[in-house]
Amino acid sequence: MTVFGVVSEDRKVCKSLQSGGAVKQSVRDHINAFDYIESHFWIATEGMYHSISTEEFNISFFKPKKDICDILHSYENSTTEEKLKLEEDYQLHRANRLTARMAKESDKITAGENLHFLAAAFDI
Questions:
Q1: Three-state SS for 112?
Q2: Is 99 helix (H, G, I), strand (E, B) or coil?
Q3: Residue-wise over 8-43: b if at least 16 C-beta within 10 A, else e?
Q4: Which residue of 62, 73, 91, 119 is surrounded by the most CB atoms within 10 Å?
């Protein structure tokens, strides 16, 4: 600090800054002196899984065009004997689905006519 209260510039210069190239190379040499250990993790990409499954195993993947519920999925993929057991639940489910659709349509019409009525549908 000078007599006038001004902080003077620090004139010290770090030696590592003066010989930056030599210090950096020394750090590189030190890091390279460590033994390398192969990682036991292998990151497989989606493309790798796709090519192996399609080319080596001849497996293809079907992306459904439309979501279906668990009841319909289990009914459609069951055997004839299992379908007989699931028939009652399936028919009840179909009736509930039709009732829900009619209620939704009714609510949409009401919401269009009445500004104080709001209809919202959610896919759960």
A1: helix
A2: helix
A3: eeeeeeeeeeeeeeeeeeeeeeeeeeeeeeeeeeee
A4: 119
Q: Is the dihedral of CA 64, 68, 74, 77 positive or negative?
A: negative
Token pair for 19: 């010989």
pTM reported for the whole predicted model: 0.41
Q: In 3D, which of 33, 35, 14 has the Cα closest to residue 25? A: 33
Tokens standing for 72? 């319909």
Q: pLDDT digit string (tens) for 6-40?
A: 666 665 555 545 556 888 888 888 888 887 776 66
Q: Which two tokens stand for residue 68?
A: 């279906």
Q: Using alpha carbons only, give the angle 2, 4, 6 rounded to the nearest 5 degrees.
A: 60
- Count CB-CB contacts under 10 A for residue 75: 19
